[in-house]
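Intended use. Records such as the 2-oxoisovalerate dehydrogenase subunit alpha entry shown here are meant for training and evaluating sequence-to-structure methods. They are not intended to support clinical decisions.
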Amino acid sequence: MSYTEATVQVLSADGRFAPTENAAEFLPYVERLTDDQLRDFHRHMAVIRAVDLEASNLQRQGQLGIWIPSVGQEAAQVGSAFAARPTDHIFPAYREHAVARIRGVDIMRIIEMLRGLSHGGWDPAEHNNFHLYTLVIGSQVLHATGYAMGVQLDGNPDDEAVMVYFGDGATSQGDVSEALVFAASYATPQVFFLQNNHWAISVPVDRQSRIPLYQRPAGFGIPGIQIDGNDVLASYAVTAASLDAARSGGGPRFIEALTYRIGAHTTSDDPTKYRDNEEMAFWVERDPLARFEAYLRSRGEGDAFFSSVAEEAADLSEDVRKKTFALGSVTPDKIFDHVYTDPHPVTQAQKAWLEEYEQRYADAEGGAA
């Protein structure tokens, strides 16, 4: 499933300002953007891609247990993230690295989690209400809806909304349908942001749904809209309008952002086993970074800006690399500590068993020497 007549688009594939007819109502949101904000869009997309590629390299070199690439999905994430207010609550899945960084999460917190040194427990209140990564597919959609119900029942005192990110594969989980039921029933101040990157690991989206996914929420009584997810301006404008509607009592909104996972599902995956080169080429031609750079250059942005962004991206990537190598080894304590607030006899017994088990190997190796 690719673009349809319903797809909202502001920039053409080659970066020209060419809004589709159905983008007209969202253009006021684009027009209010300043030059500095537009530059920030590009900066965040370029920097997170460089860090993303570096993290994949670190995993291949044995420094991370796994990495979840987001290459190709930067526009969907950056545009929508900038559309949210600091008071809004963001519930990610596990690929929203750009959103995390924009909300103030140090990328090393994600690195530490995927190295096995932490459980990813940053405090959302200290990170502009950016909640924790969720590896259980679709469960964060229920979490977000429950939180949004609480906001609605509290009378929305801070004029806040909730936004939840999920992928096309998650739409096949019952959790998502259940969340849509409760969101519609309680008229939650909420935006469902679906990043349709066309593949749930090796299962294509057209095997999961016979209709475009933005049409599904209509059955629950929730308005859905489809956007070009590789167009950062469309992502920003439609998300900003949807959040405004949700905050003002209009109930939940659903956005399907058409994008593409250029890399693997995770570094444990080999997409060459199930994807063809023709499909990949189609989406590479619509690369969100190249597209937005072309747009900025058409507005007069020069080489100096893009050089400074490239330097910033390289510096941060190198910093992430150095800090990752300095993290040290994973200790078994991390498996058991902080599972409960107080010591628990079951986890204490499990920890003792593992220590004894590993000691037997150490003793055997010592004897063999």
